[in-house]
């Protein structure tokens, strides 16, 4: 049986720092005007994508992983390894750090660690991210946190649309106001909040901090995530490699015209962030619209994409 692309219905979530761009830019049905996250390709119990059409319509991605491992090249493991999100940070996100696999296994009740990466879809002028810190030792990190010297501690980096950042576990980080991001990450929801600007939730309570776990998980001194970018041009497509790492490889496909493409990984996660096109294989065609998310399964036949569109693509 010919394998076919698996199109998924995302799950959108309210966040104290969220806005309305996920509806305005991508047409998603958002729960409120403070919607921060779209869990686009997710087999995590905190936000399960469901299949939109085809033989598996209505099943969750977790069900597919559990019952149809042949779609994913038969690779082993009890959880789907990756998670694709879109983030609309209308306000500054809280400053966090994620544990590595070892820490998560010890403290997080079955979660894996969480390394992630960000593709900046769009941002306001002079937008920033917080990426790393200045402390030279854990003792200095503790002192600076306890004294509230956030200006001295946090490294701020100016960003622009099209930038890419690899954020390994242990990196103190935050996306700041006015930024729209596609995030590729390990399939984990483990995060330790260090600082939240003293914000309160709708009940007037300050959000929990997890300082002891955060300080334990933080990489000190800070080390930038390694990126080895390269670009390949071929008929109808420019393919940019951002990272080929331990947990994921991430690419940008810029399609202009007709591109002939091959799915040669156990499976690929694809998100259309701009434009539209037609994906064709054998006798079948599927429309690709901005905001669509789909998986190219194992044994997917060679295919073409015709149109003007940009996709972020990842695989293990």
Q: What is the name of the CATH topology of the largest domain?
A: Jelly Rolls
What is the top-level CATH class of the largest domain? Mainly Beta
Order of helices and strands: EEHEEEEHEEHEEHHEEEEEHEEEEEEE
Helix content range of the residues, please?
Answer: 10-25%
| Count, helices | 6
The value of Rg in angstroms is 20 Å
Number of strands: 22
How far the N terminus sits from the C terminus, by CA atoms, comes to 24 Å
- The CATH architecture of the largest domain would be Sandwich
Overall number of structural domains: 2
| Major β-sheet profile | 9 strands, antiparallel
Q: What is the strand content?
A: 35-45%
- Average pLDDT level: 96
Contiguous runs where pLDDT drops below 50 for at least 5 residues: none
Q: Tell me the CATH superfamily of the largest domain.
A: Jelly Rolls
What can you tell me about this protein's structure?
The protein contains six helices and 22 strands. With 316 residues, the protein is mainly beta. The strands form five sheets. Strands 1, 6, 16, 17, 18, 19, 20, 21 and 22 form a nine-stranded antiparallel sheet that branches. Strands 2-3-7-14-9-12 form a six-stranded antiparallel sheet, with no helix packed on it. The chain starts with 5 loop residues before the first strand and ends with a strand. Its EC number is 5.3.1.8. It catalyses: D-mannose 6-phosphate = D-fructose 6-phosphate. Belongs to the mannose-6-phosphate isomerase type 1 family. GO terms for molecular function: mannose-6-phosphate isomerase activity; zinc ion binding.
